[in-house]
Fold each of these.
Amino acid sequence: MSLITYHHQDMIKLFLFVLILLVGGCGTERASPQPQDVKPAETEAQRLQRLWARSCALCHVDGTGGAPKIGNHADWGERLAKGREVLIRNTVEGMNDMPPLGYCMACSEDDFGAMIDLMTQGIPAVSEVLGEVKE
Ligand code: HEC
């Protein structure tokens, strides 16, 4: 009888030992998220800028491969005359040295439209400047 009791006490000691190890382990490991780890939700503008910076910017900042540069009237004026829909389609399908989707697999057609707006903000199409030329 006393032998069984002894074993029983031993098991309790072992159990307590393991429990202390577990609790100690959890104490050093900070599993709960800290306030500084929680990022505020990204705004739509920030999302577009992030996607643009990772893809379009590779070529459209310095004109790599003949890409029209961001904000450059001479580069964009003629192209804007094609209309937004055509520009979006050419981005989706690719054009000469521009790969299809302009390297942005995560972009939707609306995103491409917004990025084109971003790169051409304030630039009038050549046809708007000259007016319709009729013969
Ligand atoms: C690898 C380089 C590269 C990347 C990345 C790139 N482009 Fe281009 N893009 C070009 C080049 C080069 C042209 C000029 C093509 C031509 O006219 O031959 C071009 C032209 C364009 C045009 C004008 C199309 C037309 O019909 O005249 C649009 C609009 C455009 N890019 C949008 C984008 C957008 C939006 C992105 C990002 C999602 C992007 N591009 C990413 C290289 C790139």
Note: Helices lie at 2-28, 44-54, 57-60, 73-80, 84-93, 109-120, 126-130.
Amino acid sequence: MGKIVLIIVDGMGDLPIKMLNNKTPLEYAYKPNITMLLRHAEYAYPSVLGKLAPQSDAGVMSDLGYDPLKYSTGRGWFECLGLGMEPREGDLSARVNFGEVNNGKLSSVRVYMSKEELRSLEDEINSKVKIPADFEFRVGEDYRAGLVIRGGKTRLSQYVSNNEPGYTAKFYQGGKKLSFASGFKDLKVKKIKAVRKEGDDTAKLLNLFVKEASRVIKGSGVYKERAKKKQQLPNYLFIRDAAVSDPKLPDINRLYGRRWYAVVGMPLEKGIAMSAGMKVADIHEEPLLIDDLSKKTDAVVSALRSFDCVYVHVKQTDSVSHLGKYTEKYAIIEAIDRILISRLSKSLEIDSGDTLVMTCDHSTSSELRRHINSNIPVLIVNRKFGRNNDFGESACKKNHIKQIKKATDIMPFVNKL
Ligand SMILES: [Zn+2]
């Protein structure tokens, strides 16, 4: 049985950009190592969630073969699990962003801070915020955090809205829940609302938490220092995708009959990999792209000695897309080619039956600076396939494996090769 490496490049898919000769960043990137692999390659061009623009949770679940509409109980579960907060059934776990709001209007949903600033705010919030429930607040990377409110006597509910504009929660049968990148209608920041009666108390509790935490942040040393330096000010918490139950993903090792390993640094991706039953590498995201890719490449190569499948995640492409930096986006893809793909093309034995899959969780338009509902480009390298050309969105659209209609079809197909 051959080995499989699944590379998920966050938000890699994009739209053609005039300044890039009407090519997408993936098409524009110089990628000689990928091109070498195209002597045995086929493409797929599946949709992730049809007309809705997915977040990474839905995208990653789909790429691994889990239908998000069947399993997702809210992204917060994975996010907090990946932060090491151990949410339990009945606890409420949510994703949090440090943001900036002025006069009730949104200035930013992402206030980037250093590790030290984030740690310091984490301590202040945990020690000074008072709400009528036990909670734990933990920071992640850049502007991200997780919140777990312990269930205890209060019955917590997932039927609450997000206060982050741009992400709308939708609810499905059996308590399933998923948010979509819905774009902004206006910049007014709204309170969290109960979507059903049973969410009333939870909405109140979350609004109280936001109010209290904002007060504590504004009194903090971090805030005062930033104000002095005229830096963007974190004065608000955006809470989204609150979950109260385990999504109970079927064990991936049993699902595909192969042993899986994950080389991922972001809490969401760690949480999904942990839920799926993968062994997860003990790594975190490195601030420098080259370090990050080198460390992940080493981890993938060494995991291939003892595991059948390795899932590796690269975050930076999505981050720069949200900032509108399409030249950085293709440069990151070039670095992936140069560092990760070049090593893998040597460690994987394609001629003996190993497979390499490179795709993304969703497309992110770097001109629109948001996730879009476009189908995703998928490269599958396997000895059964003949030569192919020009890996990118247009080539995938033109010429793709017909059986792979949805992203959830990728892995079942690859697993049978
Ligand atoms: Zn994104």
Note: The chain has a mean pLDDT of 94.
